[in-house]
Amino acid sequence: MSRTPSRSSRPRTVHRCTECGWETAKWVGRCGECQAWGTVEEVAPAASGTTAVAGPVSAPAVPIGEVRTDTAAFRSSGVPELDRVLGGGLVPGAALLLAGEPGVGKSTLLLEVAAQTARLKARTLYVSGEESASQVRLRADRTHNVTDELYLAAETDLGAVLGHVDAVKPTLLVVDSVQTIQAAGVDGVPGGVTQVKEVAAALIRMAKTRGITTVLVGHVTKDGAIAGPRVLEHLVDVVLHFEGDRDSRLRMVRAMKNRYGPVDEVGCFELASDGIVAVSDPTGLFVEHHERQVPGTCVAVAMEGRRPLLAEVQALVTPTSADRPRRTTSGLDGSRIAMVIAVLAQHCGIRLHNMDVFASTVGGARLHEPASDLAVAVALASATQGRAAPLGVVAMGEIGLAGELRRVRDLDQRLGEAARLGFRLAIVPGRSPNGRARTPESWTVDGMKVIDSSDVQSALRLLNLLPG
Predict the structure, then answer these.
(1) Are strands 266-272 and 250-258 parallel, antiparallel or unpaired?
(2) Count of structural domains, the chain
(3) Gene3D superfamilies given for it (predicted)?
(4) With a threshold of 0.85, does the pTM exceed it?
């Protein structure tokens, strides 16, 4: 008598999202992780009953003190701003993932990095899966990045890419992009979960065994997240985000993950007609130099990673007859603006309930740090009263709901940068950097007078911006 197989012995059906790799036991029309429609497909069930056994090792384990570190020393990429973000430069055998929106300049940046590395007598291989070799050559001519040690190949097959690596033997490999490379014999389309995992794993394995620094370009979704499975971010050593507004020439590289250095550094670049240029002092892009006092403006000092950046905040306040006044912001957090408006009304007597408020930053800067609250309050009070703050003033401090000014981090660096750029007066929270109350209430930093204030009301009183 034949017996029907039990329910537990049947292979389990698995459905997987082709966009993010989310798995479910039954088919659904919408992915439960990335919320994409029509991306969940049935995949072959994995074989069961496999058991891992001990096998040969690549190298014997040794005490950690005997491990050599000279083979993992930093090597300059030729682009100082990128070296700053990476913590010193490129590491042999490291795998980097650079992600960014289409058109932000990822390929232009990496072509610059590849050319600069090649000029340092380090052979470089640039593999393009999105453009032909002639198209990349045209961009290299425009950006003056044609050099002898830079090799170029246009491939979309993983085996061909590994063949080029065997032939060229590069020190740096750039793959643009990982979503366009396809591994033969692996199910799925290029850019799918299975393909991306296999391609990335093969390239990273090659990078580790041969000591080749490998940079992978990754696409992003409409929400700004890196496309493909999240395991891709776990496989690589460094994850970099390349970001910037289309209306601005400024581009920033942020380290979201870095096994070899800090993750709070930011590199600044300017996208020009002849390529991409590193900006070592980007403050001038965010501050408008006024020749006279202008109401509704104030300069804030924000921290981008460990770098202080000065950015100008501008505010415009106009009467309105609408039941719900407009609150329009650009480069600022709308919820923080609403909170500052409420504090000004409650503690400073500045009523904006019947006013339209427009607040923005200069040059496309984004100020989401609470330390910019005081600068926003000064700009709003100045616009409301029609009186300008004194020239050469910077303001920094987080505003609490009780109107108090809270301490900000890295105050010494912020004050030093403002003094270096020629500002003459700074308004800061009412405690010194070491936490002790100062006596007297003002001091000097490199010729710039610094005045501490315990609350927003006293800060506006110092600048003669209170009503009445």
Answers:
(1) antiparallel
(2) 3
(3) 3.30.230.10, P-loop containing nucleotide triphosphate hydrolases (3.40.50.300)
(4) no
